[in-house]
Please model this.
Amino acid sequence: MSSRPAPAAPKSTSRGRLIDAAVRLMVKRDSIDITLGEIAAEAGLNGALVKYHFGSKDKLFLAVLFSIVLPGLESLERLLRADMPAKRKMEIHINALIAALWKHPFLNRLLRYVTLPPDRPEAREVSETFTRPYLQYQRGIFEEGVGNGEFKRADPLLFYMILSGISESLLDLRPTLRQVYGIDEITPELCAWYSRSVVALIANGILAERDPALMIPDTSFSKIL
Model:
């Protein structure tokens, strides 16, 4: 098993400033196509510090990925252990996942960059440090709901695949939203509307008994804009 990644660097350190600069550039450009020189310039630091702290662009991008996903992983572990209905845990989890993707629209591209091909060292480190625990915690919430009768019995892997796909769609469909619907920006309000709809769709698919409180919002798309 890979060793645990280095703890998140304080923002005041040069390592932390480089990670933050990379995130800012990726958000600003909606792209992970950035150079080490651009990252150093954005951080206001000497480019040699990138090599000093990370050794390579791949290792820097791995650190950027972990800076985003590991806090969420810790929150998911706490959520699993929380004293609340599994239905509520799943609702919180879905909302947090979509919010994270909205805040970091480049996240899935960065994840693919770091983990492909799957036999590279960075891919194995992501699997051991993030992906496996993430699936374990998500499965734990799902199986808790099945065990106490809140959820229907289903394959947790299928749930993971469906949730991942539907959560990414809001950002993946931006070209269509812009060209067909004239929606140039995914606003916080639109993201929240979509998140509530996803919760309702998934919850009413897995709940043993339909919850009237978890319904697709009747507010139309146009009224959000």
Observations:
- Residues 66-224 form a domain with the Tetracycline Repressor; domain 2 fold (CATH 1.10.357.10).
- The longest helix spans residues 121-147.
